[in-house]
Design brief:
The protein is an alpha+beta fold. The strands form eight sheets. It has a seven-stranded antiparallel sheet with strand order 23-24-35-26-31-32-33, with no helix packed on it. Strands 25-34-27-28-29-30 form a six-stranded antiparallel sheet, with no helix packed on it. A five-stranded antiparallel sheet has the order 4-5-3-6-7, with no helix packed on it. A hairpin with a 5-residue loop joins strand 4 and strand 5. The protein starts with 19 loop residues before the first strand and ends in a 21-residue tail after the last strand. Keywords: Coiled coil, Cytoplasm, Cytoskeleton, Metal-binding, Repeat, Ubl conjugation pathway, Zinc, Zinc-finger. One of its GO terms (cellular component) is cytoskeleton. InterPro entries: B30.2/SPRY, B30.2/SPRY_sf, Bbox_C, ConA-like_dom_sf, COS_domain, E3_ligase_FN3/SPRY, FN3_dom, FN3_sf. Its main location: cytoplasm.
Length: 721
């Protein structure tokens, strides 16, 4: 029961509830604490008198408009309820937001004894026009003439507090010991008295009339006291009447006097006992559900505590594994270091060997050269010409030969003193810096790629429906799916749907276009892989009707939005409900009514075309307007190509839009009317018509191209529509 203690404490004083009252917001507060936090409008004005004065915004209005000021400790005192007990404010102290705080008339006892002392005296009357702010939900409540007595007492909460305090009290004492009560050993259920053993033998002997009394252990006797018959409650408005009925609309117990007074006469009322049992049953059902949640929470806490132990064990194991892996890397690096040092040693020895050999060879040659030079100098010193000439040729040859031996390259070192070895440690250092942990187990937590259900995927006109499912053996939880489509031109994919459904219809695609689609699943771990890519082809020919949403208000539609007329003598524009950006499209309009020789206009338009002028008057429309004798082409109020031949009742006007050539042409009664009307057309266009009340036409869409016309070549893949 220790967890319940916070439910039994007042949010203002922090102690157990004492005479708790129920606020309209269903929160509870001590009666004395409610008195402490009352606020009143300035000058004791009522809301009615403040508004009747007509002097702008009153303090009370300010209080109502800015109730947030009640929540500030600096202006209204709210939030410092404890201060009302230890250091009450000055009576009627006015705060900056225009409210007055009424402290308690009599300082309450210390918090530790607040609920142990008897309640003495009567609380002073509550000032008029007082307001109370709930300390939990901050809802402002205006008191009526009854003041705090208008709030019902929470007797159930008060009883729970009493039982809780009794259960927390010391061991039960004998009620008949005179000086120092001894611990009770039994309780008599009939006498309702706790006895120690000496007092039981003296005052409650097991003979005579008392022999039939039932003696129970003290703990059981305490429980029997708790289950004593409930008190009969009286009405707060009619203190002499017992509460016997329950008003369903007001959700409060009422007495018969309340019903006779008329306040609840039109409300639905039921017997108090029946509603008591009904609400007890509802509370029990709610508690069962909450109990299941609490059980799940306890199991979850056990799981978390086990996770703490597992985390500690896994942490030690993982640290040891990490140290072992790093030691293995260091050992591998040391082995490689030894190998590289061995190569350096060999290179060092090779260089020394080559240089020493060159030194030895050069020393021998230099000694031979020096000997030859000394010998030749001695020969030159001789004065015997004939003897000199006998050996001079041979000596000259020897000198030249020796000189040639010291030719180019013989005095160049065969080996450089530098070591032409540079350790390429850059990639290894970069790898060490990039050394990091990889998610070894997380990959399996990502959802698997969905499977497209080909039998349910289809296209209709310019809409595509896709359906998918999870792989049958997949056990990974999925939070949702992401559907992607390209732009119909082989461009980049874009998200068109994110949600939990496994079927989606995408509208507004281009006609005669090829779209690629794919889907992937996601959960809290991340996004899974894409499904296979599905290629879909939208319809080449479009079926459409007139669009009632974007039409001018004077337009009148009928025949499932296929027949149109107007109730104005001025021209009004209406467009089709489907736009075109590629392909070849042909539609016709039959003239159902044609009076007084008007000149309706037929053609195409952008989505933002003007609706209250003739089609073609602005730069957003390309049209042909025609009367009973001739026709003209018009764009941006420019009239061109006057052509003989008009319309009458029963005539047919055809419109052919070819995006492969970028042209627009018109027909009257299956014959082309004039030359090609417009060319170099690119972008999104909607079928359009302008007419007045003298004309009525019916639309026929999705028609084949006339036989006399040969469409241009299909657009190349990847071209822009």
């Amino acid at each position: 029961m220790d967890e319940m203690e916070e439910e039994l404490k007042c949010p203002v004083c922090g102690s157990f509830f004492r005479e708790p009252i129920i606020l309209p917001c269903s929160h509870n507060i001590c009666l004395a604490c409610a008195r402490n936090i009352l606020v009143q409008t300035p000058e004791a004005e009522s809301p009615q008198s403040s508004r009747a004065s007509g002097s702008g915004v009153s303090d009370y209005d300010y209080l109502e408009l800015d109730k947030m000021s009640l929540y500030s400790e600096t202006d209204s005192g709210y939030g410092s309820y404890g201060g009302f007990v230890s250091a009450p404010t000055t009576p009627c102290q006015k705060s900056p937001n225009g409210v007055r705080v009424f402290p308690p008339t009599v300082p309450p006892p210390p918090l530790a004894q607040h609920h142990l002392l008897p309640h003495t005296g009567v609380l002073p009357p509550v000032p008029r026009n007082s307001c109370l702010t709930c300390p939990q939900c901050h809802r402002s409540l205006t008191l009526d003439d009854r003041g705090l007595r208008g709030f019902p007492k929470n007797r159930v909460l008060e009883g729970v507090v009493d039982r809780y305090q009794q259960s927390k009290a010391a061991a039960l004492k004998c009620q008949l010991c005179e000086k120092s009560p001894r611990e009770a050993t039994v309780m008599c259920e009939q006498c309702d008295v706790f006895y120690c053993d000496p007092c039981r033998l003296r005052c409650h002997p097991p003979r005579g009339p008392l022999a039939k009394h039932r003696l129970v252990p003290p703990a059981q006797g305490r429980i029997s006291r708790r289950t004593s018959p409930r008190k009969i409650s009286t009405c707060t408005e009619h203190e002499l009447e017992n509460l016997s009925m329950y008003c369903v609309q007001c959700k409060t117990p009422v007495c018969y006097q309340c019903l006779e007074d008329g306040k609840h006469s039109t409300h639905e009322v039921k017997a108090l006992g029946a509603m008591w049992k009904l609400h007890k049953g509802q509370l029990s059902q709610a508690l069962n559900v909450l109990s299941d949640r609490a059980t799940e929470a306890k199991e979850f806490l056990v799981q978390l505590r086990n996770m703490v132990q597992h985390i500690q064990e896994n942490g030690v194991e993982f640290e040891a594994c990490l140290v072992a892996q790093c030691d293995a890397l260091i050992e591998a690096l040391n082995r490689r270091k030894a190998q590289l040092l061995s190569r350096v040693t060999k290179e060092h020895e090779h260089k020394l060997l080559v240089v020493r050999d060159q030194i030895s060879h050069c020393t021998v040659k230099l000694r031979q050269t020096t000997g030859l030079m000394e010998y030749c100098l001695e020969v030159i010193k001789e004065n015997d010409p004939s003897g000199f000439l006998q050996i001079s040729d041979a000596l000259i040859r020897r000198v030249h030969m020796t000189e040639n031996q010291w030719g180019k390259g013989s005095l160049t070192p065969r080996m450089s003193s530098d070591f032409d070895l540079t350790l390429d440690s850059g990639p290894l250092l970069q790898t060490i810096q990039q050394l990091d942990f990889v998610q070894m187990k997380g990959e399996s937590l990502f959802p698997a790629a969905p499977i497209l259900q080909m039998e349910e995927c289809c296209t209709q006109t310019n809409s595509a429906t896709l359906s998918w499912k999870q792989p049958p053996l997949s056990t990974i939880a999925v939070d949702g799916y992401i559907l992607e489509l390209d732009d119909g031109n082989g461009g980049q994919f874009r998200e068109v749907y994110v949600g939990t459904e496994m079927i989606c219809t995408v509208d507004g695609l281009r006609f005669n276009s090829t779209y690629k689609s794919r889907v992937k699943a996601f959960n809290s771990s991340g996004v899974g892989q894409y499904s296979k890519t599905l290629v879909m082809q939208t319809s080449e020919i479009a079926w459409f009707t007139f669009d009632s949403v974007s039409a001018h208000p004077d337009i009148i539609l009928s025949n499932d939005n296929l027949t149109v007329t107007c109730n104005s003598y001025d021209d009004r524009v209406i467009m089709g409900n489907t736009g075109f950006s590629r392909g070849v499209h042909y539609w016709e309009m039959t003239i159902d009514r044609y009076d007084n020789h008007p000149d309706p206009a037929f053609g195409i338009a952008r989505a933002d075309v003007m609706k209250d002028v003739m089609l073609g008057k602005d730069d957003k429309a390309w049209a042909m307007y025609v009367d009973n004798n001739r026709s003209w082409f018009m764009h941006n109020n420019s009239h061109t190509n006057r052509t003989d031949g008009g319309i009458s009742k029963g005539a047919t006007v055809g419109v052919l839009l070819d995006f492969s050539r970028g042209i627009l042409l018109f027909l009257i009664n299956d014959e082309q009317q004039g030359p090609v009307a417009f060319n170099t057309l690119e972008g999104m266009y909607y079928p359009a018509i302008s007419l007045n009340r003298n004309v009525q036409v019916t639309l026929h869409s999705g028609l084949p191209v006339p036989d006399f016309y040969t469409p241009g070549e299909s657009e190349a893949a990847g071209s822009v529509c």
